[in-house]
Specification:
This protein is an alpha/beta fold. The chain folds into 3 domains: about 200 residues, Four Helix Bundle (Hemerythrin (Met), subunit A) (Up-down Bundle), CATH 1.20.120.1730; about 150 residues, Alpha-Beta Plaits (2-Layer Sandwich); about 250 residues, EAL domain (TIM Barrel), CATH 3.20.20. The protein contains 21 helices and 16 strands. It has an 8-stranded mixed barrel with strand order 8-9-11-12-13-14-15-16, surrounded by 5 helices. A 5-stranded mixed beta sheet has the order 2-3-1-6-7, sandwiched between helices. The longest helix has about 80 residues. The radius of gyration is 56 Å and the shape is rod-shaped. The relative contact order is 0.05. The structure holds ligand C2E and magnesium ion (2 copies). One magnesium ion binds next to loops. The site of ligand C2E has 25 residues, from strand 9, helix 11, helix 12 and strand 13.
Length: about 650
């Protein structure tokens, strides 16, 4: 058994990938934050350097203006000098306040010196205003220039140092920024990789889920949904006559009931293998459910379905060895060719209809014929109706047809015959519905219902002081059902009917389909005191050899020969030989279908034992039989 399970749940996978992505995104955010801090720092530093450059510039301008005032005592510069000095002092004070700690001391000295310059400059201007140029010249040389030089020199030292540091910081920031950039790129690529991985693993997971959803877990074959899709795909590809072959295992349910589900499962797996081994590489085998399999023959050559059916029938001739159990199983096969625009499910339904037809006719294989669709559909509908009839029980009834000793007047027994009154169709013949029931295990339910009902009636007659043997028809499938003899014993006990008041009628087909089992079952049935009868004798192919070995009490000559034995010497010969043979084998011989006095007389002459037919009595409800059995038989000899 092949069974697969997803390795890891999609939820765990999503959570793992989600966590990795969140971590990567966190790293990226951290990088951007660091980058923006660097930029902020650099901008502030650059502003500071600009301010320092401005201080140097203003200080130089101040010195130049001091010179200019001396050169042109009446020029405009004299009035502007103090204003310029104020700006220079403010600029230097700001520098002193923002400069790095190690330069703060010298910067403060510069600022103090610049402040000290103010009274000197005022004196200088006053000297010039008085036109005392010599005094002014001295002031310039001794006070102003000395101070100015000191200020300029110190300023330059501080600014150069600060600029160098700024440059270094900038280079470091650039390096940092580059690292961060690569980091971000790496994180981006990693994220991309994670996403791709997630996508891939999600796809793989989905494929796994899809595969599981499309697979029958027991056999590992594609399931119904996958099969229908494959049929659709073959139609889309416009393949030549893609053919759907439906395969059903006959009697699988019996195996399941008899050996249990484990053996049933093993059987399905093995059957799947056999079917798969019988097709071409390009064909698809599916288990649709239960014991239903289907094959899609891609590009099928006409007739391939039938060839395959023959091969499958041969393959299933080999018994299945399942542990210590050996099981014989046959298959029923139906096929349908898919038309281009047809719904794939409809093709499957058609193949299935053909399969059921093959089962019903026991032909093994049937190809769907569109002209017969109504017939197929009607049978399927009937099956559904029968299922309901069996559930509710009021549509089904048993009628009883009396049997008489030929040449006498005594009612020797009755045959129970099923009657179905369909809610809309009215009376439906058992010849029509029993074969439909036989295509499914519903036949067991039906047979046991008939058996139970007939035995209850036998008990009623017994209680009324009229022990009347009842014959019940048993279908092939139920007779070969392993639980059948026990079930008969149980029903006899619960109805309180002695075995000799029951007779089971089986057909030649039942015996021929599995002679060994049939013989075994009939023996067990007779051990219960129950009588056995071979119905419809002459229509089948039972050989005399079999007849000899069968544990039988009665032979019922089919009405086809009885009804025309007067007109047809061939039928007469057959009836005669059947009576002789039956007697030689120690069997009671019954003729059914006697419709006239001539036939009855002829049969009496031949020495046939029991008569059944419209000439004596038709099948009738039980209470009519009760009435009839009380009165002596009055024959209409007028015919
Ligand atoms: P069968 O077991 O051979 O039953 C005899 C059939 O011949 C009955 O048909 C009966 O009504 C009919 N028949 C009897 N005498 C005459 C006659 O003189 N002339 C003509 N034309 N027919 C006569 P019926 O009741 O329609 O049943 C048909 C078949 O359906 C039965 O054939 C039997 O094979 C099957 N059947 C009926 N009831 C049951 C049942 O409870 N279980 C099973 N497994 N099969 C059943
Ligand atoms: Mg019968
Ligand atoms: Mg018969």
């Amino acid at each position: 058994m092949r069974s697969q399970r997803p390795r890891r749940s999609p939820r765990a996978m999503a959570v793992t990938f989600g966590l990795i992505l969140a971590l990567l995104s966190g790293l990226a955010v951290l990088g951007s934050w660091r980058q923006s801090a660097l930029v902020r720092q650099l901008t502030a530093d650059a502003d500071k350097i600009d301010a320092y450059q401005e201080a140097i510039y203003l200080s130089q301008r101040e010195m130049e203006m001091v010179q200019a005032v001396l050169n042109d005592p009446n020029g405009a510069e004299r009035d502007e000098l103090l204003t310029l000095h104020d700006r220079t002092r403010t600029s230097i004070e700001r520098l002193a306040a923002t400069v790095a700690d190690e330069h703060r001391g010298p910067a403060e000295v510069i600022a103090r010196r610049e402040a000290d310059l103010e009274p000197i400059i005022r004196t200088y201007i006053a000297q010039i205003s008085r036109n005392d140029l010599d005094a002014a010249y001295d002031t310039l040389e001794e006070d102003i220039e000395l101070n100015q030089d000191a200020i300029a020199a110190n300023l330059r030292i501080i600014v150069t140092a600060e600029s160098t540091e700024y440059q270094q910081a900038r280079t470091a920031a650039e390096n940092d920024s580059r690292t961060l950039l690569w980091g971000t790129v790496a994180i981006f690529l990693l994220g991309l990789a994670v996403l791709t991985l997630y996508g891939l693993s999600a796809r793989a997971h989905r494929r796994q889920i899809d595969h599981l959803a499309a697979t029958d877990t027991l056999t590992g074959l594609p399931n119904r949904a996958a099969f229908v899709a494959a049929v659709g795909a073959a139609q889309d590809r416009r393949e030549e006559s893609p053919t759907v072959v439906a395969v059903n295992l006959d009697g699988f349910r019996d195996v399941n009931d008899r050996f249990g589900h484990r053996v049933g499962d093993l059987l399905l797996i093995e059957a799947g293998r056999r079917i798969a081994a019988s097709v071409r590489e390009e064909d698809i085998v599916s288990r649709l459910g239960g014991d239903d399999f289907a094959i899609l023959l891609a590009d099928a050559v006409p007739g391939l379905d039938e060839t395959l059916a023959t091969r499958l029938h041969e393959l299933f001739l080999t018994p299945f060895a399942l542990g210590d159990v050996s099981v014989d199983l046959e298959v029923s096969i139906g096929s349908a060719v898919a038309q281009p625009e047809q719904d794939p499910s409809a093709v499957l339904v058609h193949a299935d209809l053909a399969l059921h037809d093959a089962k019903q006719n026991r032909s093994g294989f049937r190809r769907f014929d569109p002209a017969e669709i109504q017939g197929y559909a009607a049978r399927l509908t009937m099956l559904g109706d029968l299922r309901r009839a069996l559930e509710h029980g009021d549509q089904l009834a048993l009628h009883y047809q009396p049997k008489y000793a030929l040449g006498g007047t005594a009612m020797t027994g009755v045959e129970a015959l099923a009657r179905w009154t369909h809610p809309t169709r009215g009376a439906v013949s058992p010849n029509e519905f029993v074969p439909v029931l036989e295509t499914t295990s519903l036949i067991h339910e039906f047979t046991y219902w008939a058996l139970r009902t007939a035995l209850r009636q036998a008990r009623e007659w017994l209680d009324a002081g009229r022990p009347l043997p009842v014959s019940v028809n048993i279908s092939t499938r139920t007779l070969l059902d392993p639980g059948f003899p026990d079930r008969v014993a149980g029903e006899l006990v619960s109805a309180g009917v002695p075995g000799h008041l029951l007779c089971i009628e089986i057909t030649e087909y039942t015996v021929m389909s599995d002679p060994d089992t049939a013989v075994r079952v009939l023996r067990r049935i007779r051990e219960l005191g129950v009588k056995t009868s071979l119905d419809d004798y002459g229509t089948g192919y039972s050989s005399m050899a079999y007849l000899k070995t069968l544990p039988l009490d009665e032979l019922k000559i089919d009405r086809a020969f009885v009804s025309d034995m007067i007109a047809d010497p061939g039928s007469l010969a057959l009836v005669e030989s059947a009576v002789t043979l039956g007697h030689k084998l120690g069997l009671t011989v019954v003729a059914e279908g006697i419709e006239d006095v001539a036939t009855a007389d002829a049969l009496t002459t031949i020495g046939c034992d029991i008569a059944q037919g419209y000439h004596y009595a038709r099948p009738m409800p039980a209470d009519e039989v009760t009435r009839l059995s009380a009165a002596p038989l009055v024959m209409d000899r007028g015919a």
